[in-house]
Specification:
The chain is of the alpha+beta class. Helix content is about 50%, strand content about 15%.
Protein backbone atom coordinates (compact mmCIF):
# COMPACT_ATOMS: atom_id res chain seq x y z
CA UNK A 1 0.00 0.00 0.00
CA UNK A 2 1.44 3.38 -1.00
CA UNK A 3 2.12 5.96 1.67
CA UNK A 4 0.56 9.34 0.90
CA UNK A 5 2.23 12.69 1.54
CA UNK A 6 -0.25 13.54 4.29
CA UNK A 7 0.32 10.22 6.03
CA UNK A 8 4.06 10.72 5.81
CA UNK A 9 3.78 14.19 7.30
CA UNK A 10 2.19 12.68 10.39
CA UNK A 11 5.12 10.34 11.00
CA UNK A 12 7.72 11.25 13.64
CA UNK A 13 10.63 12.83 11.82
CA UNK A 14 13.74 10.70 11.66
CA UNK A 15 17.27 11.98 11.16
CA UNK A 16 16.82 13.79 7.88
CA UNK A 17 20.53 14.03 7.15
CA UNK A 18 20.79 10.23 7.49
CA UNK A 19 17.84 9.70 5.15
CA UNK A 20 19.87 10.99 2.21
CA UNK A 21 23.21 9.67 3.37
CA UNK A 22 23.59 7.35 0.37
CA UNK A 23 23.37 9.89 -2.40
CA UNK A 24 23.65 13.32 -0.84
CA UNK A 25 25.94 13.08 2.18
CA UNK A 26 27.96 10.15 0.97
CA UNK A 27 28.45 11.28 -2.60
CA UNK A 28 27.32 14.80 -3.28
CA UNK A 29 29.02 16.42 -0.28
CA UNK A 30 32.29 14.63 -0.92
CA UNK A 31 32.01 15.72 -4.53
CA UNK A 32 31.53 19.31 -3.43
CA UNK A 33 34.42 18.90 -0.98
CA UNK A 34 36.97 19.05 -3.74
CA UNK A 35 37.33 15.53 -5.13
CA UNK A 36 34.49 15.74 -7.65
CA UNK A 37 32.39 12.99 -9.18
CA UNK A 38 32.43 12.68 -12.92
CA UNK A 39 29.66 11.15 -14.96
CA UNK A 40 30.30 7.61 -16.20
CA UNK A 41 29.97 7.59 -19.92
CA UNK A 42 29.74 4.52 -22.07
CA UNK A 43 27.35 2.31 -23.92
CA UNK A 44 26.49 0.21 -20.84
CA UNK A 45 23.89 1.73 -18.48
CA UNK A 46 23.65 -1.01 -15.84
CA UNK A 47 26.09 -3.21 -13.93
CA UNK A 48 23.33 -5.62 -12.96
CA UNK A 49 19.96 -5.91 -11.31
CA UNK A 50 18.16 -7.28 -8.26
CA UNK A 51 14.74 -8.55 -9.20
CA UNK A 52 13.22 -5.91 -11.47
CA UNK A 53 15.48 -3.08 -10.21
CA UNK A 54 18.53 -2.08 -12.24
CA UNK A 55 21.81 -0.95 -10.64
CA UNK A 56 22.92 1.84 -12.93
CA UNK A 57 26.52 2.40 -13.89
CA UNK A 58 26.15 6.00 -12.68
CA UNK A 59 25.02 4.80 -9.25
CA UNK A 60 27.88 2.32 -8.95
CA UNK A 61 30.46 4.86 -10.19
CA UNK A 62 29.28 7.45 -7.65
CA UNK A 63 29.26 4.94 -4.80
CA UNK A 64 32.74 3.76 -5.75
CA UNK A 65 34.06 7.33 -5.99
CA UNK A 66 32.67 8.05 -2.52
CA UNK A 67 34.51 5.08 -1.06
CA UNK A 68 37.73 6.08 -2.85
CA UNK A 69 37.43 9.58 -1.39
CA UNK A 70 36.80 8.19 2.09
CA UNK A 71 39.82 5.92 1.69
CA UNK A 72 41.90 8.90 0.59
CA UNK A 73 40.93 10.82 3.71
CA UNK A 74 42.13 7.91 5.84
CA UNK A 75 45.48 7.91 4.03
CA UNK A 76 45.78 11.69 4.17
CA UNK A 77 46.22 12.01 0.41
CA UNK A 78 44.18 11.38 -2.72
CA UNK A 79 44.63 7.84 -4.03
CA UNK A 80 43.60 6.53 -7.42
CA UNK A 81 40.68 4.20 -8.06
CA UNK A 82 43.07 1.45 -9.10
CA UNK A 83 44.98 1.76 -5.82
CA UNK A 84 41.69 1.57 -3.88
CA UNK A 85 40.61 -1.48 -5.89
CA UNK A 86 43.78 -3.24 -4.74
CA UNK A 87 42.38 -3.00 -1.21
CA UNK A 88 39.08 -4.59 -2.27
CA UNK A 89 37.00 -1.42 -2.02
CA UNK A 90 34.84 -2.51 -4.96
CA UNK A 91 33.57 -5.58 -3.10
CA UNK A 92 32.08 -3.46 -0.30
CA UNK A 93 30.60 -1.00 -2.79
CA UNK A 94 28.96 -3.79 -4.81
CA UNK A 95 27.49 -5.24 -1.63
CA UNK A 96 26.10 -1.81 -0.69
CA UNK A 97 24.51 -1.08 -4.07
CA UNK A 98 23.05 -4.59 -4.25
CA UNK A 99 21.50 -4.11 -0.79
CA UNK A 100 20.01 -0.76 -1.83
CA UNK A 101 18.66 -2.28 -5.04
CA UNK A 102 17.06 -5.13 -3.07
CA UNK A 103 15.34 -2.61 -0.77
CA UNK A 104 14.21 -0.50 -3.73
CA UNK A 105 12.85 -3.60 -5.44
CA UNK A 106 10.89 -4.62 -2.34
CA UNK A 107 9.61 -1.09 -1.71
CA UNK A 108 8.31 -0.97 -5.27
CA UNK A 109 6.77 -4.43 -4.95
CA UNK A 110 4.80 -3.60 -1.77
CA UNK A 111 3.98 -0.05 -2.91
CA UNK A 112 5.98 2.03 -0.41
CA UNK A 113 6.53 5.57 -1.66
CA UNK A 114 6.33 9.20 -0.51
CA UNK A 115 4.75 12.25 -2.05
CA UNK A 116 6.30 15.36 -3.56
CA UNK A 117 5.68 17.39 -0.39
CA UNK A 118 7.92 15.09 1.67
CA UNK A 119 10.71 15.21 -0.94
CA UNK A 120 10.45 18.99 -1.16
CA UNK A 121 10.58 19.41 2.63
CA UNK A 122 13.73 17.28 2.80
CA UNK A 123 15.45 19.31 0.09
CA UNK A 124 14.50 22.61 1.75
CA UNK A 125 16.24 21.57 5.00
CA UNK A 126 19.56 20.52 3.45
CA UNK A 127 22.37 22.95 4.29
CA UNK A 128 24.10 22.27 0.96
CA UNK A 129 21.29 24.03 -0.88
CA UNK A 130 21.00 27.08 1.38
CA UNK A 131 22.15 30.54 0.33
CA UNK A 132 23.79 33.29 2.36
CA UNK A 133 20.46 34.10 4.00
CA UNK A 134 20.25 30.61 5.45
CA UNK A 135 17.20 29.78 3.37
CA UNK A 136 16.83 27.38 0.43
CA UNK A 137 18.43 28.84 -2.69
CA UNK A 138 17.33 27.39 -6.04
CA UNK A 139 20.51 28.58 -7.77
CA UNK A 140 22.65 26.79 -5.16
CA UNK A 141 20.48 23.71 -5.70
CA UNK A 142 20.95 23.78 -9.47
CA UNK A 143 24.67 24.49 -9.18
CA UNK A 144 25.27 21.58 -6.77
CA UNK A 145 23.39 19.14 -8.97
CA UNK A 146 25.17 20.40 -12.08
CA UNK A 147 28.54 19.93 -10.38
CA UNK A 148 27.62 16.30 -9.84
CA UNK A 149 26.11 15.69 -13.28
CA UNK A 150 22.60 15.25 -11.91
CA UNK A 151 19.29 16.60 -13.14
CA UNK A 152 16.63 17.69 -10.67
CA UNK A 153 14.48 14.76 -11.76
CA UNK A 154 17.29 12.28 -11.13
CA UNK A 155 18.20 13.72 -7.74
CA UNK A 156 14.62 13.96 -6.53
CA UNK A 157 13.91 10.44 -7.74
CA UNK A 158 16.93 9.16 -5.87
CA UNK A 159 15.90 11.06 -2.74
CA UNK A 160 12.38 9.64 -2.98
CA UNK A 161 13.86 6.14 -3.09
CA UNK A 162 16.13 6.95 -0.16
CA UNK A 163 13.18 7.96 1.99
CA UNK A 164 11.15 4.93 0.93
CA UNK A 165 14.11 2.71 1.70
CA UNK A 166 14.43 4.33 5.13
CA UNK A 167 10.76 3.63 5.82
CA UNK A 168 11.23 -0.02 4.89
CA UNK A 169 14.34 -0.31 7.03
CA UNK A 170 12.53 1.31 9.96
CA UNK A 171 9.69 -1.20 9.64
CA UNK A 172 12.19 -4.06 9.97
CA UNK A 173 14.47 -2.80 12.74
CA UNK A 174 12.50 -0.01 14.41
CA UNK A 175 10.46 -2.16 16.79
CA UNK A 176 13.27 -4.35 18.10
CA UNK A 177 14.06 -4.23 21.82
CA UNK A 178 16.92 -5.81 23.71
CA UNK A 179 15.93 -8.92 25.74
CA UNK A 180 16.30 -8.07 29.42
CA UNK A 181 17.87 -11.42 30.42
CA UNK A 182 20.58 -10.84 27.83
CA UNK A 183 21.34 -7.27 28.92
CA UNK A 184 21.26 -8.28 32.59
CA UNK A 185 23.77 -11.06 31.90
CA UNK A 186 26.03 -8.73 29.95
CA UNK A 187 25.79 -6.06 32.64
CA UNK A 188 26.66 -8.52 35.41
CA UNK A 189 29.71 -9.61 33.39
CA UNK A 190 30.88 -6.12 32.39
CA UNK A 191 30.29 -4.37 35.73
CA UNK A 192 31.78 -7.06 37.97
CA UNK A 193 34.91 -5.90 39.80
CA UNK A 194 37.63 -7.88 41.51
CA UNK A 195 40.30 -7.26 44.12
CA UNK A 196 43.59 -9.14 44.16
CA UNK A 197 47.08 -9.25 45.65
CA UNK A 198 50.12 -9.52 43.39
CA UNK A 199 53.61 -10.63 44.40
CA UNK A 200 56.13 -9.72 41.70
CA UNK A 201 59.19 -11.96 41.82
CA UNK A 202 62.74 -10.85 41.08
CA UNK A 203 66.16 -12.46 41.43
CA UNK A 204 66.39 -11.26 45.04
CA UNK A 205 63.41 -13.50 45.86
CA UNK A 206 65.32 -16.68 45.02
CA UNK A 207 66.37 -18.82 47.97
CA UNK A 208 69.81 -19.40 46.44
CA UNK A 209 71.88 -17.41 43.94
CA UNK A 210 72.11 -18.55 40.34
CA UNK A 211 75.12 -20.69 39.54
CA UNK A 212 77.64 -19.60 36.93
CA UNK A 213 77.36 -21.45 33.63
CA UNK A 214 80.18 -23.73 32.55
CA UNK A 215 81.66 -23.51 29.06
CA UNK A 216 79.94 -26.78 28.22
CA UNK A 217 76.56 -25.39 29.31
CA UNK A 218 77.11 -22.23 27.27
CA UNK A 219 78.11 -24.26 24.22
CA UNK A 220 75.00 -26.41 24.57
CA UNK A 221 72.81 -23.33 25.00
CA UNK A 222 74.40 -21.77 21.92
CA UNK A 223 73.73 -24.84 19.78
CA UNK A 224 70.16 -25.29 21.09
CA UNK A 225 69.29 -21.66 20.37
CA UNK A 226 71.43 -20.97 17.32
CA UNK A 227 68.69 -18.75 15.83
CA UNK A 228 69.32 -16.23 18.62
CA UNK A 229 72.97 -15.98 17.67
CA UNK A 230 72.61 -15.73 13.90
CA UNK A 231 73.36 -12.57 11.99
CA UNK A 232 70.42 -11.75 9.69
CA UNK A 233 70.80 -11.30 5.96
CA UNK A 234 72.34 -7.90 5.30
CA UNK A 235 73.27 -5.53 2.51
CA UNK A 236 76.99 -4.81 2.39
CA UNK A 237 77.08 -1.14 1.52
CA UNK A 238 80.01 1.10 0.75
CA UNK A 239 79.32 4.78 1.27
CA UNK A 240 81.14 8.09 0.93
CA UNK A 241 79.94 10.83 3.26
CA UNK A 242 80.71 14.40 4.16
CA UNK A 243 79.15 15.46 7.47
CA UNK A 244 79.10 18.96 9.01
CA UNK A 245 80.54 17.75 12.30
CA UNK A 246 83.53 16.25 10.48
CA UNK A 247 84.65 19.55 8.94
CA UNK A 248 83.11 22.12 11.30
CA UNK A 249 86.20 22.37 13.49
CA UNK A 250 88.26 23.41 10.44
CA UNK A 251 86.05 26.41 9.62
CA UNK A 252 87.44 29.86 10.57
CA UNK A 253 85.80 31.86 13.38
CA UNK A 254 85.82 35.66 13.66
CA UNK A 255 85.83 37.05 17.22
CA UNK A 256 83.94 40.17 16.20
CA UNK A 257 81.12 38.01 14.77
CA UNK A 258 81.02 36.02 18.00
CA UNK A 259 80.75 39.22 20.04
CA UNK A 260 77.88 40.44 17.86
CA UNK A 261 76.07 37.10 18.27
CA UNK A 262 76.53 37.24 22.02
CA UNK A 263 75.05 40.74 22.22
CA UNK A 264 72.18 39.90 19.85
CA UNK A 265 71.25 36.94 22.07
CA UNK A 266 72.11 38.50 25.39
CA UNK A 267 68.74 37.47 26.84
CA UNK A 268 69.87 33.82 26.59
CA UNK A 269 73.04 34.50 28.56
CA UNK A 270 71.98 37.13 31.09
CA UNK A 271 68.81 36.00 32.84
CA UNK A 272 67.46 38.29 35.60
CA UNK A 273 66.18 37.13 38.98
CA UNK A 274 62.74 35.50 38.66
CA UNK A 275 59.92 34.19 40.75
CA UNK A 276 57.38 31.42 40.25
CA UNK A 277 54.19 33.13 41.41
CA UNK A 278 50.50 32.41 41.94
CA UNK A 279 48.07 35.33 41.56
CA UNK A 280 44.56 35.35 43.05
CA UNK A 281 42.54 38.25 41.58
CA UNK A 282 39.44 39.79 43.24
CA UNK A 283 36.68 41.91 41.67
CA UNK A 284 37.24 44.89 43.98
CA UNK A 285 39.40 46.18 46.82
CA UNK A 286 36.89 45.29 49.52
CA UNK A 287 36.79 41.64 48.49
CA UNK A 288 40.58 41.49 48.29
CA UNK A 289 40.94 43.09 51.75
CA UNK A 290 38.44 40.63 53.22
CA UNK A 291 40.39 37.72 51.75
CA UNK A 292 43.65 39.05 53.19
CA UNK A 293 41.97 39.35 56.56
CA UNK A 294 40.92 35.69 56.40
CA UNK A 295 44.46 34.77 55.49
CA UNK A 296 45.85 36.73 58.45
CA UNK A 297 43.30 35.01 60.69
CA UNK A 298 44.65 31.60 59.80
CA UNK A 299 42.90 30.53 56.59
CA UNK A 300 45.06 28.78 54.05
CA UNK A 301 45.79 30.24 50.64
CA UNK A 302 44.35 27.11 49.03
CA UNK A 303 41.04 27.76 50.87
CA UNK A 304 40.86 31.25 49.36
CA UNK A 305 41.51 29.80 45.91
CA UNK A 306 38.72 27.23 46.37
CA UNK A 307 36.30 29.94 47.55
CA UNK A 308 36.85 31.72 44.22
CA UNK A 309 35.98 28.48 42.37
CA UNK A 310 39.52 28.21 40.98
CA UNK A 311 42.41 25.74 41.04
CA UNK A 312 46.09 26.37 41.68
CA UNK A 313 46.80 25.65 38.01
CA UNK A 314 44.38 28.41 37.00
CA UNK A 315 46.16 31.08 39.08
CA UNK A 316 49.74 29.98 38.31
CA UNK A 317 51.67 32.76 36.53
CA UNK A 318 54.71 30.57 36.08
CA UNK A 319 58.21 32.04 35.74
CA UNK A 320 58.06 35.89 35.88
CA UNK A 321 60.49 38.79 36.22
CA UNK A 322 60.11 41.90 38.34
CA UNK A 323 59.11 43.89 35.25
CA UNK A 324 56.47 41.33 34.29
CA UNK A 325 54.51 42.13 37.45
CA UNK A 326 54.37 45.90 36.99
CA UNK A 327 53.47 47.75 40.24
CA UNK A 328 53.32 44.45 42.11
CA UNK A 329 56.90 43.58 41.15
CA UNK A 330 58.75 45.24 44.07
CA UNK A 331 56.58 43.85 46.90
CA UNK A 332 56.51 40.35 45.37
CA UNK A 333 60.28 40.24 44.83
CA UNK A 334 60.85 41.53 48.37
CA UNK A 335 58.76 38.67 49.81
CA UNK A 336 60.26 35.41 50.99
CA UNK A 337 59.58 32.06 49.37
CA UNK A 338 56.18 30.67 50.39
CA UNK A 339 54.75 33.98 51.66
CA UNK A 340 51.60 35.75 50.44
CA UNK A 341 51.60 39.50 49.75
CA UNK A 342 48.88 41.94 48.79
CA UNK A 343 46.36 42.98 47.88
CA UNK A 344 48.41 44.59 45.09
CA UNK A 345 47.13 46.36 41.96
CA UNK A 346 47.02 44.48 38.62
CA UNK A 347 45.39 45.07 35.25
CA UNK A 348 42.64 42.62 36.26
CA UNK A 349 41.98 44.10 39.70
CA UNK A 350 43.46 43.83 43.21
CA UNK A 351 45.20 40.51 43.83
CA UNK A 352 46.99 38.41 46.40
CA UNK A 353 50.32 36.95 45.30
CA UNK A 354 52.01 33.82 46.67
CA UNK A 355 55.71 33.35 45.98
CA UNK A 356 56.17 29.66 45.21
CA UNK A 357 59.86 29.58 44.29
CA UNK A 358 62.74 32.04 44.04
CA UNK A 359 64.95 31.68 40.96
CA UNK A 360 68.33 33.41 41.19
CA UNK A 361 69.74 35.49 38.36
CA UNK A 362 71.96 33.64 35.89
CA UNK A 363 74.75 35.09 33.77
CA UNK A 364 76.95 33.37 31.23
CA UNK A 365 79.95 35.47 30.27
CA UNK A 366 81.15 35.86 26.71
CA UNK A 367 84.16 33.66 27.40
CA UNK A 368 81.90 30.93 28.78
CA UNK A 369 79.55 31.18 25.79
CA UNK A 370 82.29 31.54 23.20
CA UNK A 371 82.76 27.83 22.46
CA UNK A 372 79.02 27.23 22.02
CA UNK A 373 78.67 30.20 19.68
CA UNK A 374 81.77 29.20 17.74
CA UNK A 375 80.41 25.67 17.17
CA UNK A 376 77.19 27.17 15.81
CA UNK A 377 79.07 29.38 13.36
CA UNK A 378 81.42 26.61 12.30
CA UNK A 379 78.62 24.09 11.82
CA UNK A 380 76.62 26.57 9.76
CA UNK A 381 79.69 27.30 7.63
CA UNK A 382 80.27 23.55 7.18
CA UNK A 383 76.69 23.08 5.98
CA UNK A 384 77.10 25.86 3.42
CA UNK A 385 80.40 24.40 2.23
CA UNK A 386 78.79 20.97 1.79
CA UNK A 387 75.80 22.48 -0.04
CA UNK A 388 78.22 24.07 -2.51
CA UNK A 389 79.76 20.63 -3.19
CA UNK A 390 76.51 18.72 -3.84
CA UNK A 391 76.27 19.74 -7.50
CA UNK A 392 79.93 18.85 -8.05
CA UNK A 393 79.37 15.43 -6.45
CA UNK A 394 76.34 14.80 -8.66
CA UNK A 395 78.27 15.81 -11.77
CA UNK A 396 81.17 13.51 -10.90
CA UNK A 397 78.87 10.55 -10.27
CA UNK A 398 76.95 11.24 -13.48
CA UNK A 399 80.28 11.26 -15.33
CA UNK A 400 81.17 7.80 -14.06
CA UNK A 401 83.17 8.65 -10.94
CA UNK A 402 83.30 5.97 -8.23
CA UNK A 403 82.82 6.55 -4.51
CA UNK A 404 86.57 6.14 -4.15
CA UNK A 405 87.04 9.00 -6.64
CA UNK A 406 84.86 11.24 -4.45
CA UNK A 407 87.26 10.67 -1.57
CA UNK A 408 90.18 11.92 -3.67
CA UNK A 409 88.41 14.68 -5.59
CA UNK A 410 85.95 16.14 -3.06
CA UNK A 411 87.23 15.00 0.32
CA UNK A 412 84.45 12.62 1.33
CA UNK A 413 85.15 9.84 3.84
CA UNK A 414 84.73 6.22 2.70
CA UNK A 415 83.40 3.38 4.85
CA UNK A 416 81.61 0.03 4.56
CA UNK A 417 78.87 -1.48 6.71
CA UNK A 418 76.46 -4.40 6.72
CA UNK A 419 72.98 -2.88 6.71
CA UNK A 420 70.06 -4.98 7.95
CA UNK A 421 66.79 -3.71 6.41
CA UNK A 422 64.27 -2.70 9.05
CA UNK A 423 66.94 -2.21 11.72
CA UNK A 424 69.12 0.68 12.80
CA UNK A 425 72.66 -0.42 13.44
CA UNK A 426 75.36 1.14 15.57
CA UNK A 427 77.12 3.07 12.80
CA UNK A 428 76.60 6.83 13.13
CA UNK A 429 75.52 7.14 9.50
CA UNK A 430 72.56 4.80 10.21
CA UNK A 431 71.17 7.43 12.54
CA UNK A 432 70.09 9.44 9.48
CA UNK A 433 66.60 8.51 8.19
CA UNK A 434 67.59 9.61 4.67
CA UNK A 435 70.51 7.17 4.66
CA UNK A 436 68.39 4.30 5.99
CA UNK A 437 65.71 4.95 3.36
CA UNK A 438 68.31 4.93 0.59
CA UNK A 439 69.95 1.78 1.98
CA UNK A 440 66.57 0.03 2.13
CA UNK A 441 65.88 0.88 -1.50
CA UNK A 442 69.29 0.41 -3.14
CA UNK A 443 69.68 -2.42 -5.65
CA UNK A 444 72.87 -3.91 -7.16
CA UNK A 445 72.39 -2.24 -10.55
CA UNK A 446 71.64 1.24 -9.12
CA UNK A 447 73.95 4.17 -9.88
CA UNK A 448 75.22 6.14 -6.90
CA UNK A 449 73.79 9.61 -6.37
CA UNK A 450 74.17 12.39 -3.82
CA UNK A 451 71.73 12.10 -0.91
CA UNK A 452 71.18 15.10 1.34
CA UNK A 453 71.08 14.28 5.04
CA UNK A 454 68.93 15.90 7.70
CA UNK A 455 71.79 17.93 9.27
CA UNK A 456 73.05 19.30 5.94
CA UNK A 457 75.50 16.48 5.24
CA UNK A 458 75.73 14.50 1.99
CA UNK A 459 76.26 10.81 1.29
CA UNK A 460 76.47 8.53 -1.74
CA UNK A 461 76.30 4.76 -1.50
CA UNK A 462 76.40 1.53 -3.48
CA UNK A 463 75.36 -2.03 -2.79
CA UNK A 464 78.38 -4.34 -2.99
CA UNK A 465 76.74 -7.66 -2.15
CA UNK A 466 74.03 -9.44 -0.18
CA UNK A 467 75.51 -11.07 2.90
CA UNK A 468 73.49 -14.22 3.73
CA UNK A 469 72.35 -14.97 7.26
CA UNK A 470 75.01 -16.88 9.19
CA UNK A 471 75.64 -18.01 12.79
CA UNK A 472 77.97 -15.84 14.81
CA UNK A 473 81.00 -17.92 15.82
CA UNK A 474 80.70 -19.18 19.41
CA UNK A 475 83.85 -17.41 20.63
CA UNK A 476 82.59 -14.11 19.18
CA UNK A 477 79.08 -14.57 20.61
CA UNK A 478 80.15 -16.00 23.97
CA UNK A 479 79.29 -12.92 26.03
CA UNK A 480 75.81 -12.73 24.46
CA UNK A 481 75.37 -16.47 24.96
CA UNK A 482 76.24 -16.13 28.65
CA UNK A 483 73.77 -13.28 29.08
CA UNK A 484 71.06 -15.20 27.27
CA UNK A 485 71.75 -18.38 29.27
CA UNK A 486 71.50 -16.44 32.50
CA UNK A 487 68.22 -14.82 31.44
CA UNK A 488 66.73 -18.24 30.67
CA UNK A 489 68.08 -19.72 33.89
CA UNK A 490 66.65 -16.87 35.94
CA UNK A 491 63.22 -17.27 34.30
CA UNK A 492 63.22 -20.99 35.12
CA UNK A 493 64.36 -20.39 38.70
CA UNK A 494 61.72 -17.69 39.27
CA UNK A 495 59.06 -19.94 37.78
CA UNK A 496 60.01 -22.76 40.16
CA UNK A 497 60.08 -20.36 43.11
CA UNK A 498 56.63 -19.02 42.14
CA UNK A 499 55.24 -22.57 42.20
CA UNK A 500 56.72 -23.08 45.68
CA UNK A 501 55.18 -19.83 46.93
CA UNK A 502 51.80 -20.71 45.40
CA UNK A 503 51.79 -24.03 47.22
CA UNK A 504 52.74 -22.35 50.50
CA UNK A 505 49.96 -19.75 50.19
CA UNK A 506 47.43 -22.45 49.36
CA UNK A 507 48.62 -24.21 52.51
CA UNK A 508 47.81 -21.18 54.65
CA UNK A 509 50.93 -18.99 54.46
CA UNK A 510 50.44 -15.23 54.11
CA UNK A 511 51.32 -13.87 50.68
CA UNK A 512 52.96 -10.87 52.35
CA UNK A 513 55.49 -13.18 53.98
CA UNK A 514 57.27 -13.65 50.67
CA UNK A 515 57.92 -10.03 49.74
CA UNK A 516 56.29 -6.72 48.90
CA UNK A 517 52.71 -7.23 47.71
CA UNK A 518 50.80 -4.90 45.38
CA UNK A 519 47.17 -4.83 46.48
CA UNK A 520 44.47 -3.83 43.99
CA UNK A 521 41.25 -3.39 46.05
CA UNK A 522 38.99 -3.53 43.01
CA UNK A 523 39.31 -3.33 39.25
CA UNK A 524 37.10 -3.85 36.21
CA UNK A 525 37.83 -6.11 33.24
CA UNK A 526 39.03 -3.14 31.17
CA UNK A 527 41.13 -1.68 34.01
CA UNK A 528 44.87 -1.05 33.90
CA UNK A 529 47.65 -2.44 36.08
CA UNK A 530 51.10 -1.00 35.26
CA UNK A 531 54.03 -3.21 34.29
CA UNK A 532 52.16 -6.51 34.06
CA UNK A 533 51.52 -8.78 31.06
CA UNK A 534 48.26 -8.47 29.15
CA UNK A 535 47.26 -11.94 30.32
CA UNK A 536 47.07 -10.95 33.99
CA UNK A 537 43.63 -9.32 34.15
CA UNK A 538 41.92 -11.96 31.99
CA UNK A 539 43.39 -14.57 34.35
CA UNK A 540 42.11 -12.67 37.41
CA UNK A 541 38.56 -12.69 36.02
CA UNK A 542 38.67 -16.46 35.49
CA UNK A 543 39.72 -17.24 39.07
CA UNK A 544 37.48 -18.16 41.97
CA UNK A 545 37.66 -16.15 45.18
CA UNK A 546 40.67 -17.27 47.23
CA UNK A 547 42.42 -18.93 44.26
CA UNK A 548 46.18 -18.52 43.83
CA UNK A 549 47.81 -18.54 40.40
CA UNK A 550 51.26 -18.09 38.86
CA UNK A 551 51.44 -15.57 36.02
CA UNK A 552 54.40 -15.77 33.65
CA UNK A 553 55.39 -13.77 30.60
CA UNK A 554 58.60 -12.57 28.98
CA UNK A 555 60.52 -10.80 31.76
CA UNK A 556 57.73 -11.25 34.32
CA UNK A 557 56.92 -13.84 36.99
CA UNK A 558 54.30 -13.20 39.64
CA UNK A 559 51.92 -14.86 42.06
CA UNK A 560 48.32 -13.65 42.27
CA UNK A 561 45.74 -14.29 44.95
CA UNK A 562 42.13 -13.33 44.20
CA UNK A 563 40.93 -11.61 47.36
CA UNK A 564 37.42 -10.54 46.48
CA UNK A 565 34.75 -10.72 43.79
CA UNK A 566 32.48 -7.67 43.84
CA UNK A 567 29.25 -8.30 41.91
CA UNK A 568 27.91 -5.59 39.61
CA UNK A 569 26.12 -2.76 41.43
CA UNK A 570 22.35 -2.86 40.97
CA UNK A 571 21.58 0.73 42.01
CA UNK A 572 22.94 4.19 41.38
CA UNK A 573 23.30 6.56 38.45
CA UNK A 574 26.41 4.86 37.08
CA UNK A 575 24.77 1.44 37.14
CA UNK A 576 21.65 2.75 35.41
CA UNK A 577 23.69 4.57 32.75
CA UNK A 578 25.78 1.48 31.97
CA UNK A 579 22.70 -0.76 31.80
CA UNK A 580 21.02 1.65 29.39
CA UNK A 581 24.15 1.88 27.23
CA UNK A 582 24.44 -1.91 27.03
CA UNK A 583 20.76 -2.22 26.22
CA UNK A 584 21.15 0.30 23.39
CA UNK A 585 24.18 -1.55 21.99
CA UNK A 586 22.39 -4.90 22.12
CA UNK A 587 19.34 -3.38 20.47
CA UNK A 588 21.44 -1.90 17.69
CA UNK A 589 23.30 -5.18 17.15
CA UNK A 590 20.09 -7.21 16.96
CA UNK A 591 18.49 -4.64 14.66
CA UNK A 592 21.53 -4.70 12.38
CA UNK A 593 21.50 -8.50 12.27
CA UNK A 594 17.78 -8.54 11.55
CA UNK A 595 18.16 -5.98 8.79
CA UNK A 596 21.07 -7.89 7.23
CA UNK A 597 19.09 -11.12 7.32
CA UNK A 598 16.10 -9.34 5.77
CA UNK A 599 18.13 -7.85 2.90
CA UNK A 600 19.87 -11.18 2.25
CA UNK A 601 16.48 -12.89 2.08
CA UNK A 602 15.16 -10.19 -0.28
CA UNK A 603 18.20 -10.56 -2.50
CA UNK A 604 17.95 -14.34 -2.59
CA UNK A 605 14.24 -14.22 -3.36
CA UNK A 606 14.49 -11.55 -6.06
CA UNK A 607 17.69 -12.89 -7.60
CA UNK A 608 20.92 -11.03 -8.47
CA UNK A 609 22.48 -10.55 -11.88
CA UNK A 610 25.86 -8.77 -12.14
CA UNK A 611 27.68 -7.83 -15.34
CA UNK A 612 31.40 -8.08 -14.54
CA UNK A 613 32.32 -6.56 -17.90
CA UNK A 614 30.22 -3.47 -17.08
CA UNK A 615 31.80 -3.28 -13.63
CA UNK A 616 35.27 -3.46 -15.16
CA UNK A 617 34.29 -0.73 -17.64
CA UNK A 618 33.36 1.55 -14.76
CA UNK A 619 36.70 0.83 -13.06
CA UNK A 620 38.61 1.58 -16.26
CA UNK A 621 36.79 4.88 -16.80
CA UNK A 622 37.64 6.27 -13.36
CA UNK A 623 40.89 8.06 -12.53
Amino acid sequence: MATTANEEAKRPKRKTQEVAVWLLMGMLILGLGGFGVTSFSGGVTSIGRVGDTDISTEEYARALQTQVNAFSQQFGQQISTQEALAFGVDKQVIQDVVTRAALDNEAHRVGISVGDEVVASQIMTMDTFKGVSGEFDREAYRFALDRNNLTETEFEGNLRRDISRELLQGAISGGITAPKPLTDTLYAWVAERRGFSLLRLAEADLTAPLAMATDAELKAHYEANIDRFTKPEAKRITYAALLPEAIAKDQPVDDATLQDMYQDRIAEFVIPERRIVERLVYPDQAAADAAKAKLDAGSGFEELVAERGLTLDAIDLGDVTREDLGEAGEPVFAASEGSVVGPLPTDLGPALFRVVTTLAAEETSFEEARETLAIEIQTDAARRLIADKVEEIDDLLAGGATLEDLVKDVGLELATLDFVPGQQGEAAIEGYPAFRAAAEAVQPEDFSEAILLEDGGVVALRLDEIVPAAPIPFDEAKASVAEDWRRDALAKALSARAVEIKSAIEGGAAIGGFGIVDVTPEISRDGFVPDVPETLLPAVFKMAEGDVQVIEADGFVGVIRLDRIQPAATEGEDATALQEALSAQVQQAIAADAFNAFTQALTAEAGITLDQAAINAVHTSMP
